[in-house]
Amino acid sequence: MALIVQKYGGTSVANPERIRKVADRVARFHKAGHQIVVVVSAMSGETDKLIKLAKEVQATPDPRELDVVIATGEQVTIGLTAMALMNIGIPAVSYTGLQVRILTDEAHTKARILDIDQHNMRADLDAGKVVVVAGFQGVNAAGHITTLGRGGSDTTGVALAAALSADECQIYTDVDGVYTTDPRVVPEARRLETITFEEMLEMASMGSKVLQIRSVEFAGKYKVKLRVLSSFEDKNDGTLITFEEDRKMEQPIISGIAFNRDEAKLSILGVPDRPGIAYSILGPIGEANIDVDMIIQNTSVDGLTDFSFTVHRNEFDKAMGIANNQIKPAIQARDVHGDNKICKVSLVGVGMRTHAGVASKMFSTLAHENINIQMISTSEIKTSVVIDEKYMELAVRSLHRAFELDGPLAS
Ligand code: ADP
Ligand code: ASP
Ligand code: MG
After folding, report:
1. What are the pLDDT digits (tens) for 87-114?
2. From the CA of 182, how far away is ligand 1's center (Å)?
């Protein structure tokens, strides 16, 4: 007998028929003698609808109240999933985040899980019930409902698996695993049977939304056995996230390509090149709680230089306001330029550690397509470039081909 956490995303619970399919799968595992905790997302499109609704009432919704509104999507699907299970004779009980007591910090709309009370879930599992938990939501110490950021049900699933020391956490979605890149953008992308935890972490942080990054962090920290599978078909075992020591085979140089349209670039031009200038620019941005991703500063020949950085696109207007009204006058910069039509494309692979030449092959591939590179950043297992958004698909497709990721399944 195993304890398995199964997380079902929005398309997997999109309507009553899909929910019945989920119940059928859960029932099969339950009948095989396993203890099952099910985590569900809201029906697909529902969270977007709720955010839109909130914005119609208050242009910039109050974060506490926004969480009250957007947490409702998952409350609907837990009840429906429990009912679907009962309908086929499987005892089930649903819990919201507050009812479980998934304790989070105070950060409304992007809260972090601090602790999970196992008491009720354990009692129900021991009584033979399937426990159905709302993804994406928790409660802070003051008792207010919080949410975990978009895609946060993945994190609920993995965090529950860690807390309950589950044997496996299965993330059921609308693709049958993690692919070399988003198969909706590159149809030639192939499914990976395994991907290392480090690679998955980079893929998620560079924009592959198949798993929320915090879920991967949890899996790494607590060594949760994590698998991504299709809820639509049972034809394979999906993709297993492995810890490198488990892997014996030769590593491919590049395992995947991630891309991200969520960024925007700010350039402060004519900046005096002197100690403390980076702090004078990024200090006010940090104080406004805006995360900065890539940073580039040139050296100067005439005492003046340019300084560019990227932020999340949602925070572009706010960052531009700070740059123009605070930073520019304070350091007497010449001008501020903003561009919110950029994207970031990243190659990810642990094989980069032992192989040189990845960056130059990446740059020559992009040059061949006449794509200008605006920014570059690298880490041990990742090379990223910022390019014009309109070339994103072309860049991803040509890199996918150049690094020989097109083609049949790798094993
Ligand atoms: P869910 O609602 O089940 O959480 P998501 O839409 O959040 O599903 O994540 C699944 C989607 O992630 C897929 O439909 C696919 O378009 C996208 N995706 C992006 N990158 C990848 C990748 N490397 N492998 C597989 N899917 C990816
Ligand atoms: N329903 C939430 C969202 O759309 C959480 C999730 O689906 O994981 O972001
Ligand atoms: Mg998701």
Report:
1. 999 999 999 999 999 999 999 999 999 9
2. 7
**Position 369, amino acid:** E
What pLDDT is attached to residue 251?
67
CA distances from residue 298 to 61, 72, 206, 267, 303 in whole angstroms, order as listed: 39, 48, 24, 11, 11
User: Would you state the structure tokens that stand for residue 2, as one six-digit string?
Assistant: 């195993």
- Ligand having the closest approach to the CA of 256: 1
CATH topology for 257-402? VC0802-like (3.30.2130)
Average pLDDT over residues 264-285: 94
Distance from the alpha carbon of residue 263 to the mean position of ligand 1, in angstroms:
19
Looking at the chain, which residues constitute the CATH 3.30.2130.10 domain(s)?
257-402
CATH, range 3-174: 3.40.1160.10
Q: Are strands 194-196 and 239-242 parallel, antiparallel or unpaired?
A: parallel
Cα-to-centroid distance, 309 and ligand 1 (Å): 28
Sequence ranges of the chain with CATH classification 3.40.1160.10: 3-174
Helices (H), 58-118: 63-70, 72-87, 97-100
State yes or no: pLDDT of 254 exceeds 70: yes
Side chain identity at residue 358, one-letter code: V
User: Is there an atom of ligand 1 within 6 Å of 403 CB?
Assistant: no
**The one-letter amino acid at 229:** L
This prediction has a pTM of 0.92
CA distance 247 to 224: 16
Better pLDDT: 279 or 248:
279
Pocket test for ligand 1, best of 12, 19, 175 (most atoms within 8 A of CB): 175
* Distances, alpha carbon 152 to alpha carbons 30, 87, 350, in Å: 25, 28, 26
